[in-house]
Amino acid sequence: MQEKPPSGKGEKSVVRRQPAQQRSRERLDRILEVAQQLIAEKGSEHVRMSEIAELAEISIGSLYQYFPDKRAIVRTLAGLYAAESRRCVREALEAVQNRAQLLDAFASLVDQYYEIVLDKPVMRDISSALRSDKELTSIEIAESKACGALLAAAIRRVTPGADSKRVNALAFLIWQMGEETMRLAVAHKRGEGALLVDAYKRMSLRAIEEA
């Protein structure tokens, strides 16, 4: 059972306190570092707020000053991963100038993302948590839309005559299917997962080429 914050019910799962001073920022970084470590070891559903506070060497009251509940921590970590992912996608796709470069860039992004998910168990757990909570699911959908928009822009750049609405829908679908594929792939043995990712990549590349 998840521990409840001492301050009543019904609060939105958001970061309460935005650190303005260096010491506070370092404390927040430490909380997130400890949370990632525990989530990677045990899974988010088995981590308790009291454990995070103990390992971060702060009081449980201080922890609740930053995060109203564990879900807010997961949400913050998801946002950080999403921002870094989007930065990588933007850098890769904004450099694309022709169809061959686009296909190569997309294939490389898929391979990189799969390796990152395999190397960071915490990302897999956070991804599962996002799917089990309607509020948190919105983060993933928003990220798929943002990255899909970057892909759509690249497709239109190399295929000026493509229908914009169709391309936008296709790019969003490709990106959201990618998230689902990664979840499915990491639930299988590595060889089987790699085949699933390769199948997704080939289908997506074909759709991009035909856009």
TrEMBL record:
Residues 48-67 bind DNA. Residues 25-85 form the HTH tetR-type domain. Keywords: DNA-binding. It holds the Pfam family TetR_C_22. GO terms for molecular function: DNA-binding transcription factor activity; transcription cis-regulatory region binding. InterPro entries: Homeodomain-like_sf, HTH-type_TetR-like_transc_reg, HTH_TetR, TetR_C_22. The keyword DNA-binding applies. It comes from the Bacteria. Residues 1-24 are annotated as: Disordered. Gene3D superfamilies: Tetracycline Repressor, domain 2. The keyword DNA-binding applies. This is TetR family transcriptional regulator. It comes from Caballeronia cordobensis.
